Fold each of these.
Amino acid sequence: MIKKFLQKVFSKREKAAIVINQADLGTTSANVITAKTHKIDRTLISPSALKTCEGLQKAGFQAYIVGGAVRDLLMQYKPKDFDVATNATPEEVYKIFRRSRIIGKRFRLVHVMWGNETIEVSTFRGHHQNVGDAKTSDSGRIIRDNIFGTIEEDAVRRDFTANALYYDAATELVLDFHNGVADLKAKLLRMIGDPVTRYQEDPVRMLRAVRLSAKLGLKIEAKTEAPIRQLADLLQDVPPSRLFDEMLKLFLSGHAVESINALRAQHLHHGLLPLLDVVLEQPMGERFVMLALKNTDHRILNGKSSNPSFLFATLLWHEVLAAWQTYQQGNPPIPALHMAMNEVIDIQAEKMAIHNRFTSTMKEIWAMQPRFEQRSGKRPYALLTHPRYRAGYDFLLLRCQSGELPEDIGEWWTVFADASSESRTAMLLPDTGPKKRRKRPRKKASDAPATTTTSTPD
Ligand code: ATP
Ligand code: MG
């Protein structure tokens, strides 16, 4: 027992020594912070991340929990995802873990699966001016980056000082290559290296600066903030699907309202969400979007989930309304609504592609809206059985709260959904719309055909 304990302590010390030496190898050495000083609460660390590090270290590789997870642990937040950095190549990582797969083209990584949790393992990235597999676009944006390097080189390639922290789970040491811990203490978000070059390499870092500062309550350091306004246009060069992923993170951060306000203050919203630009500039549209974002933030900060389709449906609703009005000149209301929905999605997709899996639900939510105004006959019963009724109803309530519709429509549905069968019947409004007449079968084929009037389609 005692022998085992001593072995454990000894091997921990030895590992720590290796780490410190290795951290001192490069041109800049890391600050090494011990558990006594950083006080990371191990219970906040995912067991899957620990097992991943352990597996790599047992196979003789270096392995660290890295990036946002270490930053969050130092701030005493529970990280929502864990990344591991290692000197093992993706193929080597893949061989160690039975349930793993190599993904990505721009950055090749390995996803290691434990139950339903995935740990992202990346190999230390090297300097991209080294000859090899790094590619840049005309504006300096890095398109592909698969050159491997040392931990020091990897740290330089990360975006902010607070994101370049490495935690060795075996020794419990934090390696801090760019004074990220001091910046975190000073509540500063500081870009590593020259901010202009770093934004040119990857314009998404501008969005990350805004999102992380809102989420973590950090101030963007002056030199990091200064070039953003003039470089905002670089976002045009970023693939729409990548923008979508980053915006989704922003909207679901629990700090969407602050983030949107910060994006507007930095002039980053223009062109990024082309339709949202317009919406935010109309008082009614702004009210609706801000209400939706406030609700989402509230849900997320209270540990509830939030449906991205619902959120994107709210962000673009006032554009759909405007296009719907235009299309109604010359088209019946429902086909006009469908034309408007498709147009809005198509225009938005040019800048920021919303995944198909979200757009179909968004359309369902929108298409349901006119049906809430039909409160007579059998139609309200049919609407209650719609698989997305709940989302459609929540959307309706937001429309009422924002002043777009009278409050009593929302209240009517709230009561109707829970009422008894008799009360429901009593609540139905008189049918004022054009009546649907059934075709009476004629006795003789020679009789003139019956005329039919169509009711408003569902
Ligand atoms: P979050 O808490 O939202 O997950 P994060 O900083 O962990 O924030 P991730 O997208 O999970 O963000 O990225 C993990 C880490 O990878 C970052 O902490 C950072 O070190 C690095 N990273 C991510 N995106 C970039 C980028 N565009 N440029 C440089 N480094 C990046
Ligand atoms: Mg993260």
Amino acid sequence: MAGGVIVADSGGKQYHSHVTAYVIVTCIVAATGGLMFGYDIGISGGVTSMDEFLSKFFPSVYRKSKDVTSDTNQYCKFDSQLLTLFTSSLYLAALVASFIASTISRVFGRKVTMFGGGIMFLAGSLLNGFAQNVAMLIAGRILLGIGVGFANQAVPLYLSEMAPPHIRGALNIAFQLAITTGILIANLLNYGLSKMERNGWRWSLGLAAIPALIMSIGAIFLPDTPNSFIQRGQNDKARQVLQNIRGTEDVNNEFEDLLEASEVARLVTNPWGNILRSQYRPQLVITLLIAFFQQLTGINVIMFYAPVLFKTLGFGDDASLMAAVITGLVNMFSTLVSLFTVDKFGRRILFLQGGIQMIICQLVVGSMIAAEFGTSGQGDFSRSAGNVTITFICLYVAGFAWSWGPLAWLVPSEIFPLEIRSAGQSINVSVNMLFTFIIGQVFLTLLCHMKFGLFYFFGGFVIIMTIFVYFFVPETKNAPIDEMNKVWKAHWFWARFIPDNAAGLGQRKSSTYTPLV
Ligand code: BGC
């Protein structure tokens, strides 16, 4: 057990808890879930730029990428639907799997879902590592996608149900930190393994088995969450787990709240129908748009295709993979900025500052590429132009990493009332995956047709989303989850949707919370 007793005020009652070893293990499991997702995001771009991989599975792309004749259009040399399908098929599978996972985690528990996710991911990584043809590659990607869908549905739920209330926010961003760590590890491995004479790509793809094994084994040994036990009628086990994870016998207040919350949730038999009611309109609209907008920042153009993009900009193989490592480092370290500031400065400041930074960077990158390649796609990047471009790409990644990266997972998870929270989470995951798929699938074609304008295209979306945040996303920093209706009620636009008798509006004696916006 680490640390002393913490008395946290939640829902007007006092919860007693220590930060126990169980909670720390919880973080590690969450981290493995994030690692699997991140490893996957980072690995495919590097692999698809490895010559041996391309020549074996995508020979026509390989030939085009090696074509140095003067009429080669730089924007189009990697454009291949099959190549993009390799990257993006995973996200389509994850989208479907996240709905299945929500039922499995309700009926069988979070633990089983995480275990299932780990095993699927393991099977996918083996299939990919030993792949002999494109069909095996894509089947492997689909299994990996099911693993990601399961993990992204269950791990954040598991985390927030295990975490003591006073560290829940930080733990949420720790999930994104794990995603970025996974991306960085993948970038580093790609860099090292691309130097292997043969089969470097097999190791890159096959080593995904390690985070998968850690997650599967972790899931076997971890207890399920108290909420999940209660949901399945095992109240004694729930109380026991709660005592263990809080490090104290005195868990009555929290236990009663869990029972009560699960009673309320049980009254709502159809969360999918309920979520459409007008009183939930603010949460629904904001979640749909946040998940959609996060992908329309264009971040995954960098995460998936950084090496391919850098090659397009005229860097050599090695320099391209190295540049991906640099963006990976920037991504991971910048996430720490939000972890340490999100509860102090609030979500809105991070969203707005990060958004403005991204817009400026996208304009600069688009203009640099326009200046060097123009619309014909002919020419070469000079070293200095390449360096300026990479610098602005890094500043763009940093802006994302302390704003839309973590906040797109944090904000939707904290604005829904309990009765529709898990349905809300499914919507968040699936919309995110859908647009991850679409961007992954169309990026190389878009680059080929929109050329440098692609960066202005995503920049335009960041302008729209920054204006949207300014007017429509209220500050949720420090707002107790069960008093979120006060936030909507104080908002110039959303107030009209919240009935005057909505839950959480009455002044509780113990409540000192006043909305900020
Ligand atoms: C996004 C991913 C993205 C990653 C980059 C996550 O929050 O959902 O699509 O690749 O951040 O760090």
Amino acid sequence: MAKESKAEASNTGKMFATGLGILMATLGSAVGLGNIWKFPTLTGTNGGAAFIFIYIACALVIGLPVMAAEQMLGRSSRGDAVTAFRRLAPGKLWWLIGAGGVLAAFMIMAFYTEVAGWVLAYVFKSMGQGLMTTDPAVTSAAFGALITDPVRSLGFQWIDLLITGAIILMGVTKGIEAATKRLLPLLFVLLLLVSVRSLTLAGAAEGLAFLFTPDFSAVTVNTVLEAMGLAFFKLSIGMGCMITYGAYYRNDQNIPATASKVVLSDLAISLLAGIAIFPAVFAFGFEPAAGPSLLFITIPAVFSSMPLGNVFMVIFFALTFIASIGAQISLLEVITAFLENTFKLNRKQGTAITLVSLALVGSLAALSNSVLAEVTLFGLTFFDLFDFASSNILLPVGGFFITLFAGWFWGKSKYFAQISNEGSLKNEKAGKFLFTITRFVSPVLVLIVLLRGLKII
Ligand code: PHE
């Protein structure tokens, strides 16, 4: 009892104020570069609709139960990724899941801040005329010049870190909740605007066909691993981010409903990003499989080909940057909350240490295309290694253990008490369904995809 009241007290003032705020903050974490940069890139390189189809299956069968489980673990323990497991399983090693999550947050932030930095640079670049060319060779040279310049790479990354750090410093309610509540609707409207523009171009139909007519012949085990990794990444799960946010949830928040809304809205926004990008890519005869540079090389050329392209390009990069903010603050919060609770720091100290350490680790990714281009581990630059290891290994492994914890260690009665808000929600059927999937289906699927994808079996 004493322990519990202390746990509550240490979190006083650290709660999302309203149900809508909870939804927006959580959705703000899910929606980000994952939707606007990774989803189109991977869809493009993996052949379109078939990949989307597998992604949707992963999001529903693995993503939803893991997200709900994390939020429940966070809310019932009122702890960060590590503290939650320490409180729910004292004296046991389960806290290592949370430690892996904090490590994943570092790895993701290291490359994420770099891409967000490029996006920020492009907001300014697209205001001038430099990117207004339909020749991908020119846009490619412009992108190459940016990423191989160590000073600009680091500079934009650090500006990005300072912006996100400032929001984190303002706290859970006044920082995270207030920022995401304002940014998300703006993001949605801007994305809708660009989608309508893209859809009304002559030749848009081919892009839609690419997005919605599946061809499963090109699907390999690797495609499935990529799709699952993307689901973890896009939904911010498998690394304690949803545990950290769950700790700020109100006791009367309907968790299965919230998680479902987040998964579906995140999917809708990804598809909208696809609709904003691919019809235009096809209409102007560009290559959908351009890879990570799709956003920075193909997209400017596409915008340059359309009326009012300059304006739409500024809007597009601004909305992408806005989307990245909500996701980044949730990643920062995982680290900051852990530091605050574990080392008894105040928010200022926690944020400062997080920012400084991220600037250091992040520079490894930021310099991957210049000074450190020749330094590789397992054949990957730091940038690619952080990206691959986090999405395709750390998050699925984390998700696997989270489902084991929630489905087996924590067990039925505690799971049911949380999912139904101690019985006040009459959602027994939904609860049973989610519990069964959490217990039997998700862990098995994650394990098979992971082991096959990494060629272990
Ligand atoms: N979901 C975020 C995105 O799509 C990235 C993210 C991953 C955020 C993990 C938090 C935790 O951009």
